[in-house]
Design a protein that fits this description.
Helix content: 55-70%
Oligomer: single chain
Order of helices and strands: HEHHHHHHHHHEHEEHE
Number of helices: 12
Shape: elongated
Length: 323
């Protein structure tokens, strides 16, 4: 095989553009956004624990769940338990994760203590959402899962965590190089939840009633893991187009100009016609789909395209692979 034929058959040409569309922030503004996100995350955690979980006598996993169990068993306020139990984990985070992660996690925990202290001392009991019927408590679990799941995602996006089991999950993920932190959290928290059966056990009730808090807690943790995955994939999802065209240069230039996205040109051979074509590969955000279809129709109406959704896309022009 001649050299030019070898080059043609193995040709993979990648064209990238300067990602002018990608926003960059001053380091101070990045810290401001991280702190604001941490405040919101801690508020959601404290609100769910105080108004939804404790009044309906079930728990969650991790340190938040342990503090709820301690309060039910010993009367120790959740604010005290949150601080005492998280302190050694924060120290571990400084050595085994990242300094920013440890700092933002510490801030999240301190804000949780602040919100819980304010709720415990100044918020009237009328703010507690109590479901009288056992069957109705499923709504408390769903609402709490929405709060906790959203809070966890916000905390991770801010560069930290909500403390407790989150820190352990991050350390385990780094050690095992696991893809999904959501299911690591689910495994850790389910182990903690099993203790709620003994704390909330009432000998005057049936087994079905006594096991209800555990079932609610496991259901809640399952929802939290799904919410974390859905929100993360929603933030980092994109659309991949593979376009078979005989006008690769014109179409690639138009796509890069209109969408500010990189385009890869791969030589493709039709096995029925035995004719060489070009396949352009382009990953874009979902809001750019209509624009890509318009450009493709204008430049090469005879082009053939396949669109597929990708759950995550990391790197230049999209999302940082650092976190």
């Amino acid at each position: 095989m001649e050299q030019n034929e070898m080059t043609q058959s193995a040709e993979i040409e990648t064209k990238t553009v300067n990602p002018k569309h990608q926003k960059t922030y001053h380091p101070i503004m990045q810290w401001v956004y991280s702190i604001l996100g941490t405040m919101l995350s801690s508020l959601l955690i404290a609100f769910a624990a105080y108004t939804l979980i404790s009044p309906n006598e079930f728990t969650v996993g991790g340190i938040s769940g342990i503090t709820i169990l301690l309060e039910a068993a010993t009367g120790l306020p959740k604010s005290y338990g949150t601080f005492l139990l998280n302190a050694p984990l924060i120290i571990l985070a400084f050595f085994f994760v990242k300094k920013k992660f440890a700092i933002m996690s510490t801030m999240n925990i301190l804000f949780q203590v602040l919100w819980l202290t304010l709720f415990e001392n100044f918020l009237p009991d009328s703010f507690k959402i109590v479901f009288e019927g056992n069957a109705d408590k499923i709504f408390a679990a769903i609402a709490a899962a929405l709060c906790f799941g959203t809070a966890l995602v916000i905390a991770f996006k801010a560069g930290g965590s909500t403390g407790g089991g989150d820190i352990l999950a991050v350390m385990i993920q780094k050690k095992l190089a696991a893809n999904s932190i959501a299911w690591i959290l689910f495994a850790i928290n389910t182990a903690v939840i099993s203790a709620s059966f003994f704390v909330f056990y009432d000998p005057n009730e049936t087994i079905a009633v006594n096991i209800l808090p555990v079932m609610l807690s496991v259901f809640e943790e399952f929802l939290i893991s799904k919410i974390i995955e859905s929100l993360n994939n929603g933030f980092q999802s994109a659309v991949e187009f593979r376009i078979i065209t005989d006008k690769p240069e014109e179409l690639a230039e138009a796509l890069m100009k209109e969408l500010s996205r990189g385009v890869t040109n791969v030589t493709a051979k039709g096995m029925y016609t035995k004719i060489d074509h070009s396949m352009l590969v382009c990953v874009i955000s979902r809001r750019q789909v209509a624009a890509l279809k318009r450009v493709m129709h204008e430049v090469d109406p005879n082009a053939f395209a396949v669109m597929s959704h990708v759950s995550q896309v990391l790197g230049l022009g999209f999302y940082s692979a650092e976190n």
